[in-house]
């Protein structure tokens, strides 16, 4: 396993390059890039079909930088300099536990003040270059795909919040023992929490900018499926604990690599299992028994499902149907994988189910309902 990017580079090139980057975090970032690409393409396609339109906004040009703009940039610069300089001066600590260094109150005051001055000056000088003797108000046209950067940022912030919230609800016992650590930790993220909260934020921003929610949902379906597949690569490579149940069954095919059927996740970032012999460092644990590598299975399934959604999206004309299909696919995929995946279970009487199974079932029903509603609405519109 590759808990950090340094482990991965050492495996590929045999050279240890100490970098403070977590493999899982890098693939989360790549997942956003992949989702951004797919959603941007879809927004441009829908605009070309006149399904969504540019919006007109009035803006003032030629104004000098306001105190608020300079102050905001200076504050952001202070945070960057405060933590960055401290991290560089304590590089070994940053490499060994970047999360603790980043989330701690420790920092370099001088570095923060210098960066604050630089960022504040850049905000001031940038506005000075475009300053006019008399500022004027102009109307600008903003195309939908140009809004995507802010949409993705909102999705990331609220998606992270939702993913942490649902994960802590799913692992309530460990959350009660360490609520601060549970909320601030970068690990332990539940996809459905991110989907629900991040999706709500996307719909809000889209609606605010004149994009009909039904079209924004269709835009997001394929992109979210692709992002999910890319993100799961990080889960598998880092060994973040999203693996399956113990698998001692013989391989169904002799040609199938062992690691694709049953894997012990050595050097996993979750630090679960037994200590490994002759291993030095934090990530020296390996599961005592092999388990199903469920993140890997989800990578394959998500990428195949993305390919299907991407292929059929141009042929489905009814708004809302693509997102309905996405919900059904995502729900069925997760229900199938839950049967061999480690997860906390809820109990109601004799019925036992996981949080993911409950939400997946709801998604399937909502997807079916959305498809029915969309098609029925189209029929009534035609009549």
From TrEMBL:
Enzyme Commission number: 2.4.99.-
Ranges annotated as spanning the membrane: 20-39, 60-82, 102-124, 145-163, 183-206, 295-312, 318-337, 358-375
KW Transport (keyword) present: no
GO molecular function, one term: glycosyltransferase activity
InterPro entries membership: Lgt (IPR001640)
Keyword vocabulary terms for this entry: Cell membrane, Glycosyltransferase, Membrane, Transferase, Transmembrane, Transmembrane helix
Similarity comment: family membership: Belongs to the Lgt family.
Name of the protein in its database record: Prolipoprotein diacylglyceryl transferase family protein
Taxonomic path: Bacteria, Pseudomonadati, Bacteroidota, Sphingobacteriia, Sphingobacteriales
């Amino acid at each position: 396993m590759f808990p950090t990017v340094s482990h991965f580079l050492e495996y590929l090139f045999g050279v240890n390059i100490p970098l403070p980057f977590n493999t899982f975090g890098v693939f989360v970032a790549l997942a956003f890039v992949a989702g951004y690409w797919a959603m941007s393409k879809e927004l441009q396609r829908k605009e070309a079909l006149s399904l969504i339109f540019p919006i007109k906004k009035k803006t003032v040009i030629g104004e000098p930088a306001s105190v608020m703009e300079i102050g905001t940039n200076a504050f952001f610069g202070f945070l960057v300099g405060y933590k960055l300089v401290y991290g560089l001066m304590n590089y070994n600590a940053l490499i060994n536990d970047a999360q603790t260094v980043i989330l701690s109150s420790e920092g370099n005051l001088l570095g923060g003040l210098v960066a604050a001055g630089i960022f504040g000056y850049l905000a001031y000088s940038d506005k000075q270059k475009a300053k006019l003797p008399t500022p004027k108000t102009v109307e600008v046209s903003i195309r939908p795909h140009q809004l995507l950067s802010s949409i993705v940022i909102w999705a990331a912030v609220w998606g992270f919040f939702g993913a942490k919230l649902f994960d802590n609800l799913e692992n309530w016992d460990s959350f009660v023992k360490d609520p601060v650590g549970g909320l601030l930790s970068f690990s332990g993220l539940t996809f459905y929490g991110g989907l629900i909260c991040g999706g709500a934020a996307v719909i809000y921003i889209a609606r605010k900018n004149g994009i009909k929610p039904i079209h924004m949902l269709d835009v997001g379906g394929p992109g979210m499926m692709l992002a999910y597949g890319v993100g799961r690569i990080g889960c598998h490579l880092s060994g973040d604990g999203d693996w399956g149940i113990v698998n001692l069954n013989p391989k169904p095919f002799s040609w199938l690599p062992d690691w694709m059927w049953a894997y012990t996740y050595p050097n996993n970032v979750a630090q679960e299992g037994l200590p490994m012999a002759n291993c030095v460092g934090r990530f020296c644990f390996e599961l005592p028994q092999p388990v199903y590598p469920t993140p890997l299975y989800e990578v394959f399934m998500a990428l195949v499902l993305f390919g299907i959604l991407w292929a059929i999206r141009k042929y489905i004309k009814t708004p809302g149907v693509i997102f309905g299909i996405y919900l059904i696919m995502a729900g069925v995929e997760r229900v199938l994988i839950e049967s061999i995946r480690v997860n906390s279970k809820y109990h109601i009487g004799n019925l036992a189910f996981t949080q993911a199974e409950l939400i997946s079932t709801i998604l399937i029903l909502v997807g079916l309902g959305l498809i029915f509603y969309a098609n029925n609405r189209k029929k009534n519109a035609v009549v």
